[in-house]
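Input.
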Amino acid sequence: MARLPRLALADQVHLVIQRAIEGRPAFADEIDRRAYLDALRHAAHEEHVAVHAFALLDQEAWLVLTPPTPQALSRLVQAVGRRYVGACNRRHARRGPLWEGRFRSAVIEPARVLEATVFVDGQSDAPGLTSAAHRSGGAREALITDPPAYWQLGNTPFEREAAYRALLERGTPPAQAERLRRSALGGWAYGGAGFVEGLQAQAARPLHPRPRGRPRRTP
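Output.
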């Protein structure tokens, strides 16, 4: 089966995942994570991409991004890869690629952007691994641009932080988390039927998985 072209749309929020090659950690420690964030900050500035959330795990990097053009998404990820992987290999005396094939991504409906940020920020409770602290009363991260949905959580910083902490404490329901992950890995749109139908005019490819099996024959 031919691989579908990546779904990337201008001014739409994307949930992005990069997975490390099996047996190679994506991030060994805080130094690696800061190096990745520095590379991300530099690329986001160059490509004018808004970064809404991140999670830097042992084997994966999750990002929530809004690119100004479809091409900016790929250019950002490629730039981060060149800058971070080279520095990481030099530091750990390694050679070769770090990431498993190309990155995966899903386009997120605006009304569900907070679902994506809570999903990413909830990937770990360990400090420094995610951007959760930025929105929940901890240190602010200059790299992060809060999406409009976050500002609607309250009229003051205290109200917004308290509301976001409550969302993190509630967590992402397992079925929703699985759908977000499958959407990113499959390259699908994540949202309601109306959102998907509206996007279809901009995309020359399917936006959701087709039903399994052969179509039924018409009697």
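The CA atoms of residues 31 and 159 lie 33 Å apart.
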